[in-house]
């Protein structure tokens, strides 16, 4: 990689880190692009060159956090004794992430308001395809009832996402979490063969 390319990658990384911190602390609407660019000693032009606009920068931060959430869920699922347990753990991990203040603010509260329906986000589509692949495997091994894998994946992911949104918006997220996890497990148990 050339020196210029390395410098551009470093600039992008610095902007993302500063934006993530600011979006988590102040929210989307109260994050100032002038203050943000001053923090990383850049011009607004550098920000717009790399991300287009504030919404593009926010989408990049959402993508970064979403990928980290998926990686965390997959890592936890690897230690499970079965594919079925792994599916449950991945969903539970996603739902539990609703207690993280950064995820609450950026992904669950501001994300839908700024970027629209989360099911249409590119990172969510990758997650959906992964869940569909797992469902297909579970059906093939006889662990899950024979259902349409795409429909089942959409419903499983939707249950996890909506549980997380509910927890994040709850006046007492710590109290809502165990109720959401119990309901999630019961819903999925109906799919088990």
From TrEMBL:
InterPro entries xref list: Homeodomain-like_sf, HTH_TetR, Rv0078-like_C
UniProt xrefs under SUPFAM superfamilies: Homeodomain-like (SSF46689)
Cross-referenced PROSITE patterns: HTH_TETR_2
Keyword annotations of the record: DNA-binding, Transcription, Transcription regulation
Positions of the DNA-binding region: 32-51
Domain (HTH tetR-type) ranges: 9-69
Pfam families, per the entry: TetR_C_41, TetR_N
Listed name of the protein: TetR/AcrR family transcriptional regulator
